[in-house]
Every structure is written in C-alpha cells, then in structure tokens.
Amino acid sequence: MIENRPLASFLAHLTLLIGVLVIGLPLYMTFVASTHTAEAIVQQVPMPLLPGDNFVESYRLALFGGQTRTGGTLPPAGPMMLVSLVTALVIAVGKIAISLLSAFAVVYFRFPLRGLVFWMIFVTLMLPVEVRILPTYQVVSDLGMLNTYAGLTIPLIASATATFLFRQFFLTVPDELVEAARVDGAGPMRFFKDVLVPLSSTSIAALFVIQFIYGWNQYLWPLLMTTSEDMYPIVMGIRRMLATSDAATEWNAVMATAMLAMIPPSLVVLLMYRWFVKGLVDTEK
Amino acid sequence: MAVEKRVRFKSWWLPWVLIAPQMAIILVFFFWPAAQALYYSVLQQDAFGTSVEFVGLDNFRALWGDESYLASFKITAIFSFWVAALGLVLSLVLAVMADRVVKASRWYRTLLVVPYAVAPSVAGIMWVFMFAPSVGVVSYGLGLLGTEWNHLLDGTQAMILVVLAAVWNQISYNFLFFLAGLQSIPKSLIEAAAIDGAGPWRRFWTVQFPLLTPTTFFLLVINIIYVFIGTFGIIDTATSGGPGQDTSILVYKVYFDGFKALDLGASATQSVVLMVILVVLTVIQFRYVERRVHY
Prior knowledge:
The complex is a heterodimer. Chain A is mainly α. Chain A contains 15 helices and two strands. Chain B has a two-stranded antiparallel ribbon with strand order 1-2. In chain B, α3 packs antiparallel against α10 and α6 packs across α8. The two termini of chain B are 15 Å apart. Classes of the chains: A mainly alpha, B mainly alpha. Chains A and B meet through α1, α4, α5, α6 and α8 of A and α1, α3, α4, α5 and α6 of B.
C-alpha cells in the first residue's frame, strides 16, 4: 500500500467481502440443500437457508443410490467418482508423459520434418473436441473404443500447451548439463530420465493441477461416447439425476452429488495452490 | 532465450520414437476427424445414407440461409459479449481491491479460485437450482421484488441465467490474471504517481489500467474462446439450449444437429465454421502474446 487511507482500505475489504459472499452463494446453497431432505427443499417456501440434519442420509443416497420419492431409482455416484478419478489421472499423467517426450525430441534432436511436426502439434490448439464432435465420435466408434477408459482418455491426451511449456523450459536448461552427461557416458535417454525430468518437476506439478481439473471436468466427450452407466464420469452422470420437473427432482441427492463432484478438483487447487497459479500462467505463454 | 540448442544428441531413429505417441494421437483423433468434417461439409447425403454427392459450397450456402443458424450466431455473440464484459469488469474490481489489501488478500484469493475447479456442467446445475421457478432461493427473492422468474419460458431470463453461471465459472481465471498483472507493475511507478499527488482513483486510470491493457486484451480473447467451446456443459445442464432455441449457442447446435437431429452434413459444415472461428481467435491470441512477452 502506498499511503494510509483507512476509508479506501475499508471499502476494499467491503468490496472483497461482498464479492466473496456473492461468489460463495451458489456453493453455500448447494451445501445447504445437500443437508436437508428432498421434501423440505420442495415444500418449504423459501427453501431452508441454514444447514439441516439430513447430511448423512443425503450423502448416503448420493454415493450409493436408492429410491426416490416418486418411485424412480437414483444411480450411485460412488462408481462415477471412480471413473472420473481414473479418467482425470490418466489424462493428466498421459498428457505430461507424451508431452515431455515430444518436447525432448523437438529440442534435443535435429531430424527431418521437425518444423512440420512442431506445426502439427501447434494446430491442435485450434481443434478442440468441441469443434469436431461427430467425426471424432466416428473414429472412436470405428476403433471399438466406445464405453472404454481408452476411449474416454486417449483422444484427449495430445497436448500442444504441455509440449510448448516443456519446450520453453528445456530451452532454458544449460547446455553444459548435456556436455557433462556426455562426458560421464550417459546416452540421451539416461540424460532425459536422470537430468531433464527431475529438473522439470515444478513444471510437471503445475501442469498436473491444470490437466487434472481439465480431465475431471470433461463433459461433452463422455456425453458422446459413453452409453453404459458404469462408464459415466460424475460431472456427466449428475445431469441424469435431474428429473423433468423441479418438484420431482431429488435435490438433496443432486446437490450432494454436486458437492462430491467438486470436492476433488477443489482440493487439488487449494492444496497445490502455488503450482496451480504457476500452471495457469505458464500454460498461457 | 535461445530458440535452438547448441548441443544436441545424434540419432536418426530415437526422435521419431519419442514423438510417435503424440503424433499417433494427433493424426488419428485430431487431423483425421477434422479432415472428415471438411470432407462431409462439401457432400450431400440423402436421408437414408444410400447416395452421396459432391455439392461444393452448397452446405455453407444453406447454412447462411438457415435462420436458426443465424439466430444461433447472434445468441453466441450476445452470450460472449455479456460473459466477457461482466466477467472482466467484476474480476478487475476484485483484483484491484485484493491488490490493495495486502495482508488479507490470501484469504480472499483462496475463496475466489474455487469456481475454477467446478465443472461447467455442475456450475449449470448449481445456478439452475438457485433460479428454479418453484424451489430456487433467488427466484423466490425476485418474486418478492415483483419479478416473476421462469427461465423455462422466458428466453431473456434463460440467457441471463447462463451468463451468470458462465461469469461465475470463469471469474477465478480472470481474477488471477488481473491480480498477477497488477502485482507485476513496479511499485516505484505507483509511488511516483502518489508523490505527484495522484490518489488511488487517478492512479488506477492513468497508471495501472493502461499497463493492464495487454492482460485485458488477452483475457478478452480467452473469455470468448471459453464461451465458444467451454460453456457447453452450462448450456446443456441449465437450459438444454431452450426455451425454444434461445440459448442454443453454436457448439450446442453442432451437437444437437449431429447427435439429436442426426443431420451429418449440417453438423460437419457447422464444425468447419467453428474451426475457422477458432483459428482466427487463436491467431489473434498468439500474435498478441508475442507482444506481451516483449511488453
């Protein structure tokens, strides 16, 4: 702060407080709804504004599934969370692994068509799955990958951002390290494994946070290519818990599922905050 | 920074092995489908899929004459405008305030980044819950104020709902970039302005905001890209493109025409249009980033 202005500081705190409250409102209402019974939410006007005592029952219903008031059945969110977790981890680790390898090839070797390869990776930035929905679906379907983990993850593993990030980083690694490795008789893979990867650990952590969230929050792609309930990730499966009318929806279970869907990525962001910010900033360079 | 390494390894086969996984995925899942989309966009298939003929740009012409497509374009433009405008203004205000209160800014920051971790589809459900005509808290509050809220019937209200959800979902990203931008401005500049007698308001408009222009422009492009491809989950869970087609943005229409209406040619043609838009946006983004690096 440059000068001491109590009023300005007070206003700053006030604005931030209001901002946090407004931004926190959807989160708070979601939590409150997940602690009441479905009846309380639908019948009370307005719905209860303070947490209730149905916490355990709501989350049990969300995690393990069960009967709704109207006689329908709710799918369990537990298995969906597992699908999401596996998908997000495979996508994050896969992206990091193949991008490390490609960046290593592009930076440390000279080979024909290197420029073309680099350009092809760059172009994928402009071709997210959202703009080539139907043909990509056909490819995955032709390869027999519908309703499999391979289908959920492999088409999303290519990453121009991660490749560029590692390329940028590798270019800053001093050449003396390569020479030293050579003198010690280490080949390229040995250098990669024992020098380059350990040096990249901060970038790897930063990318992991961003890509884990990217993988966990995938919605459109699973929507297209999973038709079997046991392959639904949670952020997509939750959609099917909404009934046709507001009154018939089991809101407490839906909102408990929403909480379950956002807790893992939120934890990753909050616990790895430093790497998260680094990842955000670095991936946009 | 060097663009090329001085010291390299020598091997004619190893680099190919190293890039093979990335190239395989790119070729099979990116280039091949994109080429397919281009291919289908110039073909016409009859209703039973028995015959296919080359029709050149007829599909694009048909698209241009299709009122629901033009409407979808307009909807996407309105959606982009409001998400970018509201999102940037609100996050800039919050970032300026957080930059001022150094001590507590950590707390606010932590709370403000949570929306980033929430999936667009889940954000859509959370917002639709608050605005649900019969059970929502906000719709109840609006009712007390005399506004009848029903986004299932009112297209404008549906648009407001998805704009709010999208702004909320994207605000952490904008906030963090603005805050980083503000904190990278040398303190000496601000101090010099303060010594010259400029108060916080004046300093913001004459020093901080001009220096934030690159960040703002960058975020503008990112927000538009987010609206074009990132908001599908919000639209699908909050409104399903409705009522009617009032919130059916371009990506949602590609999905709907391809998977629900099973109109292969139209979907492919729309994909190609989207690709072109995205190429333009990405080029703008990268040309600009060049400048940002040199600052």
